[in-house]
Amino acid sequence: MPIRVAQVMGKMLGGGVESVVMNYYRHIDRSKVQFDFLVDADSTRVPEEEIKALGGRVFRIPPYQHPLRYHNELVRLFREEHWPIVHSHINTLSVFPLSAAKKAGVPVRIAHSHSTMGKGEFAKNLMKLALRPLSNLYPTERFACSEYAGKWLFGRDTDFTVIPNAIELEKFRFDPVIRQETRKELGIADDMFLIGHVGRFMPQKNQMFLVDVLAGLLPKRPDAMLAFVGDGPDRTAVQQHVEELGIADHVLFLGQRSDVNRLYQAFDVFCLPSLYEGLGVVGIEAQRAGLPCLFSDAIPREVDVTGASRFMPIASPEEWVLFISAIESETRISSSEKVFSDYEISENAQKLASMYLKFSEKK
Predict the structure, then answer these.
(1) Percent residues over pLDDT 70 in the chain
(2) From CA 311, how far away is CA 342, in angstroms rounded?
(3) Which of 37, 345, 358 lies closest to 164 in space, CA to CA?
(4) Distance CA 59, CA 40 (A)
(5) Global confidence as pTM
(6) Of the chain's two ends, which shows fewer C-beta atoms within 10 Å, N or C?
(7) How far is Cα 169 from Cα 167, in angstroms, rounded to an integer?
(8) What is the 3-state secondary structure (H, E, C) of 230-255?
(9) Strand, helix or coil for residue 108
(10) Nearest residue to 200 (alpha-carbon basis) of 175, 160, 166, 234
């Protein structure tokens, strides 16, 4: 019988953390380890069919905005299901499910830091700062997607294990045939320059800034286009901004996609102007596709696996415009297989399974 691990996901809305956890789930040895997903009832993108097909279960719980109901339901579930391991992915909010897990007597409680914080999200930041000192109270184990994210949540003197945001390396490798096919599907001519961005439309991802970058770039490069991949609450505002600037025919809103690996092939440069990130798995994917990458200087340098990425401040779009205007279409950064080896999903899933098994034997 496999050991079952309760994965506390918070709201599943189609973000990067969810894709990382699902990636591990697809590649882990499910004869040894099975996942059950605890998701807030107001989640909009739960891959329920796939989870069930892989042998997992989905439990919908009251949203954490109702703390008492949330806590009581979790305590009840943890007592009823007897999971030996609870693995929480909700950063500073992990204090809530892990305190419930402790109360219910769950022996192994993992807090996983996937993010940090940055300017511009005042209320959210206040809550993070209030909860962060409690982050070491309830976990028995600590994971993080990067050194930076781990130190941010758990402190510089606390031990934690970096679990890479691993991907299927083969799937993202540059392929000129797929590039041509995908550009044709998108209606992008060979001589057009396509800027790509993958991310949920929310303040953290700072898509408005990219629209301003495009507006500054068009006088220099009228052949430029910008493709947004993703969805989220800020999408309408970003679309409005595009309309106001009169550049709608240069912007593609591609929505939530299951073929993101193909879309990277079509891009000429990848931009991530986030206000903060734990790591930014999309940055790893883009580099694997050989793309020149431009990141905000608020993103951990650990994301730069090829050593060829650029980090720039997001104070004004001018610097970004200059950098992008100098990139030629079809530029691809070649790098050795070795630089990506840490991010190979099958190997990392095997390591994670071993850790789960070791933790469950210890307790």
Answers:
(1) 100
(2) 22
(3) 345
(4) 8
(5) 0.92
(6) N
(7) 6
(8) CCCCCHHHHHHHHHHCCCHHHEEECC
(9) strand
(10) 234
